[in-house]
């Protein structure tokens, strides 16, 4: 048997850090990453035959569990017709219709291949539409790795201690204004000074790349108001929250309508897909309708569309998201009870199908400064010990956790039993 440790060593020969995306490397976790062979439902199975209850779900897409039979069948059905044509196909229209039906703020939508492409293109569109260069984002929000957005970012950019990356030209970064999350006053102050130069505000309507931080009441509403006042474009990056916090995403959950929405993850059912869309007036500026250029050789790929449509169709079922949120609540309450009983300072935060665990004495975490002040060493011990208990959490204190409808009450109970043992071990030094 080849172990994960051996595979990691082999991987490091020709892949930077042995991984094709940095957070996978388990950096700072004092152990090599687990190599997964296959997955089904709520479970991952590693190359050494170990089973894990998975709360990463391929970083979000697997909202009905891994290897969903209906998603796989939809892909299989298209497979023999060919992988890509580079022409229009009817299935792209079906996807666009479906997205616009689920998200009423979207009149027109363009498919791309990743969340990064979605946000990068939405930013270009907002700049092209307004004729302004400056953009406003929030500290600890992650919107993919395009240059304008890799400034004080979350996720791997944060885990790896490089909130901004070398290689991002200062001349470009200076157009990106970064403000504290959940701080409407800071936004109002900024707009009072330079509002007429700001093309857009881009925001994670629930922050999921510095752990899980929901918006405080009035924050999203305030962003909407400020954008209206200054004719700036409000972009919700719903790559993570879309179809997860509620079917209609955070915009449905919190009742605030953005001008543009970025999608990814669930929309592709596990295939490499992203999308951006919104108001007809703005989206009509995209090529070939308008002058703002954006394109993609494999965009709207038929297999990817088939997977995404199958998944979206499945989660439209009445009550799906309520049941998902209920599972998250059971898990979070159970973790809280056990941490309290063991005397481990920990809180949880959640929104619909996503959640976060913070090792802190604070009663609430609302922004980047508070998120980064949590106990990193406690998280490392928790993560590693949970992995030994057969529970796969994101290998970073700055990532949200994801529930799926495949997680049974027994899976959640097993997770809580594991956590109880882990909390007990954490209070023993
Ligand atoms: N936006 C958000 C909110 C994300 O969480 C992510 C990825 N986790 C992205 C954008 C980038 O998506 P991708 O990794 O598909 O490029």
UniProtKB/TrEMBL annotation:
PANTHER family: GLUTAMATE-1-SEMIALDEHYDE 2,1-AMINOMUTASE, GLUTAMATE-1-SEMIALDEHYDE 2,1-AMINOMUTASE 1, CHLOROPLASTIC-RELATED. Keywords: Cytoplasm, Isomerase, Porphyrin biosynthesis, Pyridoxal phosphate. It is found in: Cytoplasm. This is Glutamate-1-semialdehyde 2,1-aminomutase. Its EC number is 5.4.3.8. It comes from Litchfieldella qijiaojingensis. Homodimer. PROSITE patterns: AA_TRANSFER_CLASS_3 (PS00600). The keyword Isomerase applies. Pathway: Porphyrin-containing compound metabolism; protoporphyrin-IX biosynthesis; 5-aminolevulinate from L-glutamyl-tRNA(Glu): step 2/2. HAMAP family: HemL_aminotrans_3. The modification N6-(pyridoxal phosphate)lysine is found at residue 265. Belongs to the class-III pyridoxal-phosphate-dependent aminotransferase family. HemL subfamily.
């Amino acid at each position: 048997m080849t172990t994960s440790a051996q595979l990691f060593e082999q991987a490091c020969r020709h892949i930077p850090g042995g991984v094709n995306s940095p957070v996978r490397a388990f950096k700072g976790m004092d152990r090599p990453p687990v190599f997964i062979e296959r997955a089904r439902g709520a479970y991952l199975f590693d190359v050494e035959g170990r089973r894990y209850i998975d709360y990463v779900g391929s970083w979000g897409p697997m909202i009905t569990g891994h290897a969903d039979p209906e998603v796989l069948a939809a892909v299989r059905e298209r497979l023999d017709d060919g992988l890509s044509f580079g022409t229009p196909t009817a299935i792209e229209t079906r996807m666009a219709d479906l997205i616009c039906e689920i998200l009423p703020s979207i009149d027109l939508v363009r498919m791309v291949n990743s969340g990064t492409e979605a946000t990068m293109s939405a930013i270009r569109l907002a700049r092209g539409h307004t004729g302004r260069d400056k953009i406003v984002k929030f500290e600890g929000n992650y919107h993919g790795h395009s240059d304008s957005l890799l400034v004080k970012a979350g996720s791997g950019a944060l885990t790896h201690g490089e909130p901004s990356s070398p290689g991002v030209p200062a001349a470009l970064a200076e157009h990106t204004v970064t403000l504290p999350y959940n701080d409407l006053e800071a936004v109002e102050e900024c707009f009072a000074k330079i509002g007429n130069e700001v093309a857009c505000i881009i925001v994670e309507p629930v922050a999921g790349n510095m752990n899980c931080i929901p918006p405080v009441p009035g924050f999203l509403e305030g962003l909407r108001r400020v954008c209206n006042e200054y004719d700036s474009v409000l972009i919700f990056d719903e790559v993570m929250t879309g179809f997860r916090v509620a079917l209609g995403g955070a915009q449905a959950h919190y009742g605030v309508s953005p001008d543009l929405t970025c999608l990814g993850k669930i929309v592709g059912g596990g295939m490499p897909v992203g999308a951006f869309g919104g108001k007809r007036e703005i989206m009509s500026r995209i090529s070939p309708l308008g002058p703002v250029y954006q394109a993609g050789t494999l965009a709207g790929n038929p297999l990817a569309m088939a997977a995404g449509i199958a998944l979206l169709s499945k989660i439209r079922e009445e009550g799906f998201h309520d049941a998902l949120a209920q599972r998250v609540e059971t898990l979070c309450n159970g973790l809280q009870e056990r941490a309290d009983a063991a005397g481990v300072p920990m809180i949880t935060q959640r929104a619909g199908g996503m959640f976060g665990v913070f090792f802190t004495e604070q009663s609430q975490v609302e922004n980047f400064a508070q998120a980064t002040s949590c106990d990193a060493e406690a998280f490392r011990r928790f993560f590693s010990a949970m992995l030994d208990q057969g529970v796969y959490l994101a290998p970073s204190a700055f990532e949200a956790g994801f529930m799926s409808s495949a997680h049974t009450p027994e899976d959640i109970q097993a997770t809580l039993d594991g956590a109880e043992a882990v909390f007990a071990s954490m209070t023993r030094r």
